[in-house]
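[step 3/7] fold_predict: job queued, chain A
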Amino acid sequence: MITEDQIKRINELARKSKTEEGLTDAEKEEQQLLRRAYIDSFKANLRAQLENIEFVDNDKKS
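[step 4/7] structure written:
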């Protein structure tokens, strides 16, 4: 699970990467790791939601 602090850091690095200063090599690596963690967390949450879907057929004919 990704934390709010990690999301804030992802956004900080994204903003900094768009400036003239850019990111250092260490920051680029950190950004990649944080993005991967975010994507993995998103996929896990989506998978859990999809696994909990139950289909119900309300069109039963008598």
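[step 5/7] annotate
The mean pLDDT is 94.
The two ends are 47 Å apart (CA to CA).
exit 0
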